[in-house]
UniProtKB/TrEMBL annotation:
<keyword id="KW-0408">Iron</keyword>
<keyword id="KW-0813">Transport</keyword>
<keyword id="KW-0411">Iron-sulfur</keyword>
<dbReference type="GO" id="GO:0046872">
    <property type="term" value="F:metal ion binding"/>
</dbReference>
<comment type="similarity">
    <text>Belongs to the Rieske iron-sulfur protein family.</text>
</comment>
<feature type="region of interest" description="Disordered">
    <location>
        <begin position="1"/>
        <end position="41"/>
    </location>
</feature>
<protein>
    <recommendedName>
        <fullName>Cytochrome bc1 complex Rieske iron-sulfur subunit</fullName>
    </recommendedName>
</protein>
<keyword id="KW-0812">Transmembrane</keyword>
<dbReference type="InterPro" id="IPR014349">
    <property type="entry name" value="Rieske_Fe-S_prot"/>
</dbReference>
<dbReference type="GO" id="GO:0004497">
    <property type="term" value="F:monooxygenase activity"/>
</dbReference>
<dbReference type="Pfam" id="PF00355">
    <property type="entry name" value="Rieske"/>
</dbReference>
<feature type="transmembrane region" description="Helical">
    <location>
        <begin position="169"/>
        <end position="189"/>
    </location>
</feature>
<dbReference type="Pfam" id="PF19297">
    <property type="entry name" value="QcrA_N"/>
</dbReference>
<feature type="transmembrane region" description="Helical">
    <location>
        <begin position="59"/>
        <end position="80"/>
    </location>
</feature>
<dbReference type="InterPro" id="IPR017941">
    <property type="entry name" value="Rieske_2Fe-2S"/>
</dbReference>
<dbReference type="InterPro" id="IPR045603">
    <property type="entry name" value="QcrA_N"/>
</dbReference>
<keyword id="KW-0001">2Fe-2S</keyword>
Length: 374
């Protein structure tokens, strides 16, 4: 049966009172609350009885005293107890007496202060509730008019209204003034990511003068980092991981070497053929690898941390920063964490007995950025 009492009904656009506490607006959303007021004040024992007040005072003082004892225990343990001295603590077993006393002392010191403060507030401090009504924040009309008048008067005295050229020059200088700051900030953000993350040492090196990319004349060998040794496929055993740099990079010097190393870093590992998933990703990973050896960018596609951990049993690569997890058996698809894209794969093959890059990364390495797909 439907209840048709006035309290249960409301008409669209009309606020209907439901109970004492609040007023129901349209769509069931309260649009204002009534002030429920304060409950009647109940006096505490210490408010009415002097003996109860003194007892409460002694309890509070005792708790603060307990805190002082705790601090003293801490100081004694710190300065006088030999750290090698052992004691037996139930559950824990044999442990350092100094550590036990330090812990107990600190706990008592903090607990005593906390409990003392709470007890003091609950029993002795004034507990009358007081209400301060909130006044409107808007200034009075008189104050607002006064402000406008002062501003106009200031403008008048500065002759801004009588001298339009001066006014225009002043406004123009103020409008242009922030531009150098804005440009300075924008210019300090470094090159556009598209220009930078799309080109790694595997593609070639960027000519400083022309900005053009000078492609390598041959396929670059994969070199161990930091030994700088080329790698034979037989050295990459199941379960091992190699940290790899492109040939020629480790001989470089200067800060650009660090930048290039940061972008070109590759992880190399070997899986059994049957470990790869029978998916488009798994098949592509195998195809771009060499006899189960696969090479992936080490730069996490979330915000660019080095992916540092390879779980041999699950064939997962883990990024330590925010736990993004990439599945090597399926072309390093993201299976957990905030990264949104797989790690780019480096296509490899063998030349003269050593692993080489058959082609550079086919997409920018590292995190996503706005013009990545353009
Ligand atoms: S940078 Fe790798 S998960 Fe965030």
């Amino acid at each position: 049966m439907t209840d048709h009492t006035p309290e249960s009904e409301h008409t669209a656009g009309t606020a209907v009172r439901l109970d004492q506490g609040h007023v129901q607006g349209t769509g069931g959303v309260p649009d204002r609350f009534e002030n429920p007021g304060l409950p009647p004040h109940v006096h505490r024992a210490a408010d009415l009885d002097d003996r109860a007040a003194r007892r409460a005072e002694r309890i509070v003082a005792g708790l603060f005293g307990l805190s002082m004892v705790g601090t003293l225990i801490f100081l004694v343990a710190y300065f006088l107890v030999d750290v090698e001295t052992q004691t037996f603590v139930p559950v824990v077993g044999r442990t350092s007496l100094s550590n036990v006393l330090l812990g107990v002392g600190l706990a008592l010191a903090l607990l005593g202060i906390g409990l003392g403060a709470v007890q003091w507030a609950k029993t002795l401090m004034p507990d009358e509730e007081s209400v301060e009504e909130r006044h409107p924040l808007r200034s009075s009309q008189e104050a607002r008019d006064g402000f406008v008048e002062t501003m106009m008067e200031g403008g008048e005295k500065a002759q801004l209204t009588r001298r339009p050229i001066l006014k225009g020059a002043f406004l123009g200088s103020m409008a242009l003034f922030p531009l150098p700051l804005v440009l300075q900030v924008a210019g300090s953000l470094g090159p556009l990511p598209k220009n930078d993350l799309s080109v790694t040492w595997w593609n070639g090196r960027r000519d400083e003068q022309t900005g053009l990319i000078v492609k390598p004349e041959k396929k670059l060998r994969l070199m161990t980092d930091p030994e700088n040794k080329p790698i034979r496929p037989g050295e990459v055993t199941i379960g091992s991981v190699f940290h790899v740099m492109p040939e020629g990079l480790l001989e470089e010097h200067g800060t650009h070497k660090l930048t290039e190393k940061g972008k070109a870093a590759v992880l190399l590992m070997r899986l059994k053929p049957e470990d790869f998933q029978d998916t488009p990703g798994g098949r592509k990973a195998q195809e771009w690898g060499y006899q189960g050896i696969v090479a992936y960018s080490k730069i996490c596609t979330h915000v660019g941390c080095p992916v540092g951990l390879y779980e041999q049993t699950t064939h997962h690569l883990l990024c330590p920063c925010h736990q993004s997890t990439f599945d090597v058996t399926n072309d390093c698809e993201v299976i957990f964490g905030p990264a949104k894209r797989p790690l780019p794969q480096l296509k490899i093959t063998v030349e003269n007995g050593y692993l080489v890059a058959d082609q550079p990364f086919q997409e920018p390495v590292g995190p996503s950025f706005w013009e990545r797909e353009s």
